[in-house]
Fold this protein.
Amino acid sequence: MMTNKTLTQVILYGVVCLAILLLPTLINDDFLLNRVARYLVLAMVSMALALSWGYAGILNLGQAMSFGLGSYCMAMALKLRTIPVHTGSEGLPDFMVWNNVEKLPWFWEPFYSMPFAILAGILIPVIVSAILAWFMFRGRVTGVYVAIITLATLVVVNLVIIDQQWATGGFNGITDLAQLELFGITFDAYSATTYYLIAICLTVCLFLALAVTKSKAGLILQAIRDQEARVRFFGYDVALFKTMVFCISAGIAGLAGMLYTIVMEFASPTFLGVQLSLSIVVWCAVGGRQSLVGALLGAILVAGVQGALSESEVFLDTWTLVMGALFVLVVLFLPNGLASLGEKVAEKIGQMRGTASQTAAPGKPVAGGKPLRNTKLVEGQ
């Protein structure tokens, strides 16, 4: 049975998602709509990190790895659908022609199929994360060591992508992509259609993550976060549960990466960069790592403020300092993120109601219109 707290969360999440879906009715600028769509994608990957970090205690500093792998899977599929002017002989991508590649590599061939590309964009990050998780969690690696290993893995994958220029485009990434077409619908990066695609995917992933946290597995994950040794003592396979949430987070990040390629119209090694991965951690921390919707809104807020400051003439040279100061202030005064503000307000309102009810209790009227007298005083008379 759904508790009052769960019902409140469902309503809150529904209101946030409804507001996101209705936003295009208020925006007439296609460029602004594209920018907001980008923020929603970043919010999705931040929410994915909150699922593993906030609810299972797994600080993944390599979250951008899954994001970037998903991005490249979609870019490979769209590159094979570009018009001939962007490709070499026999449909080879332009960067392969520049690197004297004569035949399309075997691992590019399956990406002629868009269903395969979509599945690959989710499953490849999941498989890579599962392998990494197996070594980490079966070896009972915890805490800061998990963060170091995931960050190191991200760096390795990034270097491989850059080094294999003949297959990945190197530093330039994969550019000049075709537009995604599904079920006869063309998803232009600057259209409301693409925005709704992202908003719907975000909504589905948000409620999927919420369902995970409210399930028995979600409760076990939170217990692992707080007392891993005690959970293991009760006979639960801690490594299995941690691997599960680690892979779910990677799958959501991979989907976000594919959507980011659609809205940005290219894939770049920066999508697997350390800077982006650390930014995801900052967004999650600012919004509240133990709140899915908090991490989501935190990413939108921080990315939006960052975009506005970086384009402002006043803060053109100092916007990074402002963002750093904002992060420090949030960590110092709101260690649980901006989401804790809502909890504090709700707690304060509850205390005020409790105080008001206690004050009004002695003089509470009865059916006859007269106030009740204190029972103990009546008995003492």
Summary: Residues 12 and 293 are 9 Å apart (CA to CA). Strands lie at 180-182, 185-187. Residues 372-381 have pLDDT under 50 and may be disordered.
